[in-house]
């Protein structure tokens, strides 16, 4: 904890450093440049403290316009670098502190041009990344000031920390929720090629940032998605998923896959064709995630799998025959609620075939029977009992499949055995009308007066 | 530059709270339901499915299981737990290396030979060929051959040269052509004066009013005296040649430059 005295010393030092900078800028004699660099360096050191950097004081003393002046065209690289570094750390502060960088933004953007030294460009990109990370309105300003194109170009070299920083900043810039930047980005010449190249060959740190760029491209822009699914991207993502052990990388890679599958039926229909190697590989990769100890990986892998299971009968059979089955059964029985819900989607999707016309889906008896025999019904009835409306709906829907699908009243017996009737009766006075209706219909139809059981 | 400029990343201070809060999904997500059309449209002919063999009278309104693609936006609560770490990285501080870390790096680097930049008047010392290439690219390729100002892109350099050193450019401006290009690449807009371009940058591209593309280099004492005399004569921006018809081309440029500067200096306001 900083004691007050230390605090006020720090503030005094900062105010004084800003004054020094002001004087150095005004000075026009010999050695002016070195004076400026020294003053900037002093301020930068104060702002680079890992605990309680005096950002507020710096801003209040008028640092920002001075720093912006230090970014003027033709300034020495050292000066540009120190000024951009100061701005970076100011922008890493509280929201209003980040916003204070507004006057300097166009200059920061100008210095990420291809003729700037790499260190200068990287530092400016870093500062811009911090600004973009603050909020949507700042992203909008940066984009309207032309930040997207030069930042995208910084991804083109093969390696280096500059690529990493630029990738991170770019992911902050396009994260929306407005999809316009994402759609613009994919159209820039060379971007798709750079993305593929990095995901194929670059180290995990760079690949992670690029993967996040893909996450936002695929989540926000249908145009980007349809471009990307026609490249090697899916293949490269699956390979990373299989080979990497870094959670930082696996999360955006998995999510990108999920977005590309959910966003465009082309993926499931044309790329992940059941006989193809890539399809086997992706299921293997998803199984790896389901086995992981990380909740996020399990949950999002189940989500991806549920979307594949929503595909053709061939897809469902493929999953049914894979290593995923025992995992799904186990997760449905034992895992936490959020994972259980996603797994429920997989299981249910595996049990019904796409409907013809506007009727209800038809059942795949083999699959349904298999799951029921493995005791899955209980997991679904648990969902019916949960407070989550969506989960309860899933539970009731699955119960309907069981009641409809199992011959000779077996379905009814099973449901009763697992306390399903009780679970459904809880909805009698539930405020949600849909659920009330669904539960009542099931009870009326399958457990009506002629069921042969005492009330 | 030496390793003074290598930094490490750090996430924001501990009192930072991510702007996204995690909300539990209590409300239902209807996307996968909406595809289903209720069975009141249902008729007997659609029941010819080989697999299903329970053909009882249907109740309407039961929302049967329907397999459908589920898609989420990037901000959806579904992704919240996966986003937690990433949110912390939304802003990153650039920290100095500790003395120890610097020493380690110095030990690694001592083996490198030095490269001296051969361009006349430069003499910069670089530690490796890669650094030299970087330096050359930054310092010796996008510089103005007239006034030596350096610009970060070829495009900005080109704009500068036209606007500051090209009398043909000024002539066209004087005749009312829209010659001042917007500085944002891809915009394509052209304006008739430096001032109106400045306005366009503010209006269309959210530039602050303090941004000034053409900042005059430090003038000599003689020029500073001249400028302070001239300021008293001119209230508005003008490209007129005041020295009379005997003026040389260079003088024309200088007058124009001074005119630009004095006008622009009236434009800038500090934020």
From TrEMBL, chain A:
One of its GO terms (cellular component) is cytoplasm. The keyword Repeat applies. GO terms for molecular function: nuclear import signal receptor activity. GO terms for biological process: protein import into nucleus. Keywords: Protein transport, Repeat, Transport. It holds the Pfam family Arm. InterPro entries: ARM-like (IPR011989), ARM-type_fold (IPR016024), Armadillo (IPR000225), Importin_alpha (IPR024931). It comes from the Eukaryota. PANTHER family: IMPORTIN ALPHA (PTHR23316). Belongs to the importin alpha family. This is Importin subunit alpha. The lineage of its organism: Eukaryota, Viridiplantae, Streptophyta, Embryophyta, Tracheophyta.
UniProtKB/TrEMBL annotation, chain B:
Residues 223-252 are annotated as: Disordered. Residues 144-165 form the C2H2-type domain. SMART domains: ZnF_C2H2. Residues 223-234 have a biased composition (Basic residues). It comes from the Eukaryota. Coiled coil: none annotated. This is C2H2-type domain-containing protein.
């Amino acid at each position: 904890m900083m004691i007050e005295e230390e605090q006020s010393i720090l503030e005094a030092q900062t105010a004084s450093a800003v004054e020094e900078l002001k004087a150095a800028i005004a000075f026009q004699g010999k050695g002016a440049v070195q004076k400026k660099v020294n003053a900037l360096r002093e301020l930068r050191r104060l702002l680079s403290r890992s605990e309680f950097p005096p950002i507020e004081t710096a801003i209040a003393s008028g640092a920002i316009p001075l720093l912006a002046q230090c970014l003027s065209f033709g300034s020495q690289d050292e000066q540009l670098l120190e000024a951009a570094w100061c701005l970076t750390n100011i922008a890493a502060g509280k929201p209003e502190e980040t916003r204070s960088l507004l006057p300097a933004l166009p200059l920061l953007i100008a210095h990420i041009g291809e003729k700037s030294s790499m260190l200068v460009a990287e530092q400016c990109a870093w500062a811009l990344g911090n600004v973009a990370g603050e909020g949507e309105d700042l992203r909008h300003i940066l984009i309207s000031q032309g930040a997207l194109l030069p930042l995208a170009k910084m991804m083109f070299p093969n390696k280096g920390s500059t690529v990493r920083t630029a990738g991170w900043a770019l992911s902050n810039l396009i994260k929306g929720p407005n999809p316009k930047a994402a759609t613009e980005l994919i159209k820039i010449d060379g971007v798709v090629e750079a993305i593929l190249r990095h995901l194929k060959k670059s180290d995990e740190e760079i690949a992670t940032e690029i993967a996040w760029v893909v996450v936002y491209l695929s989540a926000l822009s249908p145009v980007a998605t349809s471009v990307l699914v026609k490249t090697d991207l899916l293949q490269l993502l699956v390979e990373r998923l299989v080979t990497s052990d870094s959670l930082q990388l696996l999360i955006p890679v998995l999510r990108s896959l999920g977005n590309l599958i959910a966003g465009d039926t082309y993926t499931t229909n044309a790329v992940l064709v059941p006989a193809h190697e890539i399809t086997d590989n992706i299921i293997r990769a998803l199984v790896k995630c389901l086995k992981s100890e990380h909740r996020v990986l399990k949950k999002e892998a189940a989500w991806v799998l549920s979307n594949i299971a929503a595909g053709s009968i061939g897809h469902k059979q493929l999953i049914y025959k894979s290593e995923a089955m025992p995992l799904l059964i186990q997760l449905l029985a034992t895992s936490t609620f959020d994972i259980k819900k996603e797994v429920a989607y997989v299981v249910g999707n595996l049990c019904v075939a796409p409907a013809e016309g506007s009727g209800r889906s038809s059942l795949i008896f083999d699959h349904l029977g298999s799951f029921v025999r493995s005791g899955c019904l209980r997991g679904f009835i648990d969902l019916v009992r949960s407070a989550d409306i969506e989960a309860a709906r899933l539970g009731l829907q699955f119960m309907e499949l069981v009641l409809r699908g199992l011959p000779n009243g077996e379905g009814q017996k099973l449901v009763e055995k697992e306390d399903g009737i009780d679970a459904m009766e809880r909805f009698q006075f539930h405020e949600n009308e849909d659920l009330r209706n669904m539960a009542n219909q099931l009870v009326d139809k399958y457990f009506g007066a002629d069921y042969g059981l005492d009330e | 530059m030496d390793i003074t400029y290598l930094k490490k990343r750090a996430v924001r201070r501990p009192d930072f709270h991510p702007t996204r809060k995690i909300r539990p999904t209590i409300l239902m997500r209807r996307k996968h339901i909406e595809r289903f059309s209720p069975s009141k449209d249902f008729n007997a002919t659609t029941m010819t499915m080989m697999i299903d063999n329970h053909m009882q009278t249907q109740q309407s309104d039961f929302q049967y299981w329907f397999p459908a693609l589920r898609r989420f936006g990037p901000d959806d609560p579904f992704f919240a737990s996966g986003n937690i770490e990433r949110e912390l990285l939304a802003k990153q501080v650039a920290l100095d290396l500790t003395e120890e870390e610097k020493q380690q790096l110095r030990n690694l680097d001592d083996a490198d030979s030095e490269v001296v930049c051969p361009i006349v008047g430069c003499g910069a010392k670089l530690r490796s060929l890669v650094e030299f290439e970087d330096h050359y690219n930054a310092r010796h390729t996008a510089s103005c051959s007239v006034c030596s100002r350096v610009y970060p892109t070829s495009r900005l350099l080109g704009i500068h040269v036209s606007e500051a050193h090209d009398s043909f450019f000024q002539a066209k401006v004087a005749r009312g052509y829209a010659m001042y290009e917007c500085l944002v690449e891809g915009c394509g807009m052209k304006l008739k004066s430096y001032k109106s371009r400045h306005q366009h940058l503010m209006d269309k591209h959210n530039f602050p009013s303090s941004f000034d593309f053409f900042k005059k280099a430090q003038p000599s004492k003689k020029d500073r005296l001249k400028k302070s005399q001239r300021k008293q004569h001119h209230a508005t921006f003008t490209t007129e040649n005041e020295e009379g018809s005997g003026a040389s081309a260079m003088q024309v440029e200088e007058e124009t430059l001074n005119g630009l500067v004095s006008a622009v200096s009236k434009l800038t306001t500090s934020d």
